[in-house]
Amino acid sequence: MREGSLDAPVRHPINWNDPEFYDEALLDEELRRVFDICHGCRRCFNLCDSFPRLFDLIDESESGELDTVSSADFKPVVDACTLCDMCFMTKCPYVPPHEFNLDFPHLMLRYRAVEKKKGEDKFVPRQLAKTDRNGNMAKHVAPIANWASNRKNGLTRGIMESTLGIHKDAALPPYHSKTLLDRARDNVLTVNPDAPAHGRKAVIYATCFGNYNNPGIGEATRKVLARNGVETEVVYPGCCGMPLLEQGDLKAVADNADKVSAELAGWIDKGYDIIALVSSCALMLKFEWPLIVPGNPAVEKLSKATYDVAEYLVDIAKKEGLAGGMQPLDGAVSMHLACHARAQNMGAKGAELLRLIPETRVAVVERCSGHGGSWGIMKDNFETAIKVGTPAARTSLKSGAAYFASECPLAAEHLLQGMEKLDSDGAESRKALHPIELVAAAYGLTD
Ligand code: SF4
Ligand code: SF4
């Protein structure tokens, strides 16, 4: 729930095709307009590192006002934004339809799009954003790739830090020789014909992370849905483009949106719902793509048909009822509500889902993990990312939970690293899970 306004926030299409979008004088004017409003407001002081950087910049200037701050000093403010959307979604009373028309994250995005246009985007994040190319290459050498990227490997990680700028302590997601698509092809599941939701059909949009880095989330989703009578297909036409969005590469995001929506729209026409395995990707399909390629009918159709995983299971629970057979977990769950799940404005569906497991205590953590995709693994940002996520990590630890879950697998891993810094003793035994994996465990569907 957003503070201070009764009107639901609306977002305007992003005019990335308009030459004025890249006009640096106009961008500076808008940055100064928005920063001045934020300076007078300061509600967002503790959401991330962008706002403290902005407020320090202004407070330490000659006049203590924005007029004596050089625009050249704005970049660190922009660089600290992870596009988590929390200022827009939960704090800002000045978002449209308010006349101030303030959309802080999309202004940061515009700044990066201008940098991209000028060729000032950074090489390594640009390469990391090519998730399909990277995943397709790494799956053929997964054991070697995982050996090299393991943060216990001081040799390779030291080289990666000095040559690529990836912080040597940042956990990097592993790769698998068999992707989720491979596994779904090899493992046909029998759908429970007696479940109340029998007759539903859903496409599991694998997402790049779910396909290459953590196929276990998709496998758990398939099994839970099959137990609930839902016929599924795993489909993956390509990445949603969130990592490209972080780089301000709006043309590439638009291309991905056109391609993926064209394929998924065909499934929607055949009566399938669409489930995105990762919250950031669901956010892209539901909300960002329609703003980046407005007027594309396939994108519009997909936006309305897409569910986050937990949202879909809760929908089944409410409408038809879940299939019986879940057993209590042997401990409480600390459930982190990821920013990109919260930004979908759907309620705390991950926590709602876990509370459907009998006798399970769920302790909710609502603070940002601080990860921010590829942003948080870079040498320049990792310490900040850990600092931003420390309150959430501390709350998770204090809950005394046996399980740590988040709808964002990257956020969950990052939180584990924050917990490790606070309490290194229990680090080995802690594992990050998606809530659907705990539901699969409660059904006894884990291997
Ligand atoms: S989108 Fe998130 S990281 Fe960016 S300024 Fe807003 S709260 Fe901070
Ligand atoms: S984004 Fe909105 S709520 Fe946050 S500091 Fe700026 S004006 Fe205030």
TrEMBL record:
Protein name: Ferredoxin
Residue stretches making up the Cysteine-rich domain: 203-286
Organism (species): Sneathiella chinensis
Keyword Iron: yes
Keyword line: 4Fe-4S, Iron, Iron-sulfur, Metal-binding, Repeat
Cross-referenced PANTHER family: ANAEROBIC GLYCEROL-3-PHOSPHATE DEHYDROGENASE SUBUNIT C, GLYCOLATE OXIDASE IRON-SULFUR SUBUNIT
InterPro entries cross-referenced by the UniProt entry: Cys_rich_dom
